[in-house]
Amino acid sequence: MEFLGKKKTMLILTAVLTGSFMLSNINAAMAEYGGKMISAERTGERMIQKETLTLTQEWDKVFPKSDKVNHSKVTFVNRYGVTLAADLYTPKNADGKLPAIAVSGPFGAVKEQSSGLYAQEMAERGFIALAFDPSFTGESGGHPRYVASPDINTEDFSASVDFLSTQDNIDPERIGIIGICGFGGFAVNAAAIDTRIKATVASTMYDMSRVTANGYFDYDKDEATIKKERYEMRKKLNAQRAEDYKHGAYKNAGGVVDPLPKNAPQFVKDYYAYYKTKRGYHPRSLNSNNGWNMTSALSFMNMPILSYSDEIQSAVLLVHGEKAHSRYLSEDTFKKLKGNNKELIIIPGANHTDLYDQKKFIPFDKLEKFFREYLK
Question: Where are the domains of the chain?
Fold first, then answer.
């Protein structure tokens, strides 16, 4: 802002410090001093600005393209200024304003994998669906690359709602979200903060804060062991911060282990079977390749998600496989939820990654019914 003289500068500064800097104060100041104000919005300081992204135009998904929907590439910007890349799936011959669903995950995957499959399927069922790459990954922008954040990745869902709610063919009062794996946890977290989200599905969810801070299967550990392990991890990651800065580059944590050890746990074998084979491999997928920046884990150890999940008033559906190693994360999350519009369903015989892409296990009929009920 530009003002002439100390008197008017003090007028505005006083208003800011007293919390009374409202439109009336601005108008009064402008009237008194001849309207000579240049707003931050006009000078670009608060403008929403998109990065220029390079988007692949050919179909490069790990699933077949449907002839029942229209597909296009779109971009939008989150509250932290990161431009997100997404695939928009729209039912063919659709009329009027439709309900919409934003989809992301799994944690370390890209929109060409599971989220795109979910989005295309929901579009075939009459919803406009958006599958997006999270900040710093895939075709989305943001630097440094391959960073995960409990706050920013939750914000990515809200940014998708910003985009969807401003489209001419979408009813802004009928928007839901689907999060898969780690983004199931972020989806529930987004539902706690964003009242525009009317219905949320978390499929085969992880609570990334809990798993990072406590390790897997923390129900088998005593508190002292958890705290000791967490402290050792903090020391390791903080030492890595210094090494990264010294060498001018961020060390990655590595994707799904390759080659696969013969004695690997079954759930690691399941991850390998998806991310490292023709079934689900994608060249932009972190899990298929070199993984996240190692120090991304620090924020998850210090900033737990789901803290306000008991305050979610909108509908939530948790879906998990009977044989999934991660099943306890959905079951414990469900215990926190309040209200008769919350539901947990367990899919017989399914493991964690079966709900990534196996349509015989993914309950799409149930998802359609859920969203039709709560996005009406």
Answer: 6-43, 69-207+305-374
In the structure encoding, which two tokens stand for residue 145, read together?
A: 């690359």
User: pLDDT value at position 40?
Assistant: 53
pLDDT band with cut points at 50, 70 and 90 for residue 21:
very low
Identity (one letter) of the amino acid at 129? A
CB 119 within 8 A of CB 128: no
Q: Which residues contact 121 (CB under 8 A, 6 or more apart)?
A: 359, 362, 364
pTM > 0.85: yes or no: yes
Across residues 129-154, what is the average pLDDT?
Answer: 98
The DSSP string of 86-144 is EEEEEETT--S-EEEEEEE-STT--TTSHHHHHHHHHHHTT-EEEEEPPTTSTT---SS
**Which CATH entry fits the domain spanning 69-207+305-374: 3.10.450.50, 3.30.70.100, 1.10.3670.10, 3.40.50.1820?**
3.40.50.1820
